């Protein structure tokens, strides 16, 4: 994992953050362009944290 690579000195914390940022960008792009399926999630909101209907 990234934590292990940072812990043993293979990666700097800054590089680990860059990897996470790039992963997020790549996943968002892949979800927009390659995924055709949709999902619906239903549940109960016990704590309001800036969630609207």
Describe what is shown at a glance:
This protein is mainly α and 53 residues long. It has helices at residues 2-7, 13-33.
Explain what this protein looks like in three dimensions.
It comes from Taxus chinensis. This is Transcription initiation factor IIA gamma subunit N-terminal domain-containing protein. It is found in: Nucleus. Pfam families: TFIIA_gamma_N. The chain is mainly alpha-helical and 53 residues long. It has one domain (1-53). It is built from 2 helices and no strands. The protein has helices at residues 2-7, 13-33. The longest helix has 21 residues, at 13-33. The protein starts with a helix and ends in a 20-residue tail after the last helix. The model has no long low-confidence stretch (mean pLDDT 89).
Spatial shape: flat
Rg computed from alpha carbons, rounded to a whole number of angstroms: 17 Å
Question: How many domain modules?
Answer: 1
* Poorly predicted sequence stretches spanning 5 or more consecutive residues: none
Task: Provide the succession of SSEs.
Answer: HH
Helical residues, percent = 40-55%
What distance separates the N and C termini? Answer: 36 Å
Q: Total number of β-strand segments?
A: 0
- Overall structural class, as computed from helix and strand content, comes to mainly alpha
Average predicted local confidence, pLDDT:
89
Largest sheet: none
Strand content: under 5%
Helix count from the secondary structure assignment: 2
Which labels suit this protein?
53 residues; mainly alpha; 51% helix
């Amino acid at each position: 994992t990234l934590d292990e690579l940072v812990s043993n000195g293979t990666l700097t914390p800054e590089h680990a953050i860059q990897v996470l940022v790039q992963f997020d960008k790549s996943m968002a792009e892949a979800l927009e362009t390659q995924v055709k399926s949709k999902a619906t999630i239903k549940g109960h909101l016990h704590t309001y944290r800036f969630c609207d209907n």
